[in-house]
Amino acid sequence: MASEQLPAGWTLEGIRDVSGDRQATTLDTERIVTGWPAQDERIHPEIVLGFHGLCLVKPVNDDDWYMGSLNDDGSVTCWSVYGDLYEALRGL
Predict the structure, then answer these.
(1) How buried is residue 45: exposed, middle or buried, by Cβ count under 10 Å (0-12/13-18/19+)?
(2) Would residue 5 count as lying in a domain?
(3) What digits encode the pLDDT tens for the residues 16-44?
(4) Residue 60's Cα: distance from chain center in Å?
(5) Sheet harboring 65-70: ordered strands across?
(6) In this structure, are residues 51 and 65 in contact, taking their beta carbons and an 8 Å threshold?
(7) What is the pTM of this model?
(8) pLDDT tens column, 38-92
């Protein structure tokens, strides 16, 4: 079952304000997410936020946020991790 949700305490408008991306959106979590800490490491997303070609992913049972690229096939390859969403949004 596909899932698109916002982080607790956040609105889409708030995410757009902090990130500076007026087209930021939630994305379906039914996708392959890899890349942290190793390229073949699989991340199971609870929340995926899209910012043009970039994504922020919050894994299930993890409070960190992973930044990565949205690939043409819909998968995400992460290369960085942040301790909280605000920090990750400012890092875009």
Answers:
(1) buried
(2) no
(3) 999 999 999 999 999 999 986 666 789 99
(4) 12
(5) 25-27, 45-51, 54-59, 65-70, 76-82, 33-34, 42-43
(6) no
(7) 0.91
(8) 667 899 999 999 999 999 999 999 999 999 999 999 999 999 999 999 999 999 9
Residue type, 37: P
CB 51 within 8 Å of CB 66 = no
Number of structural domains (the chain) is 1
Residue type, 89: L
Report residue 92 as tokens.
Answer: 């875009």
Any domain includes 2: no
Cβ atoms of 16 and 10 within 8 Å: the answer is: no
State which residues form the domain around 82. 12-90
Assign 23 to helix, strand or coil: coil
Residue 67 lies inside a defined structural domain of this protein: yes
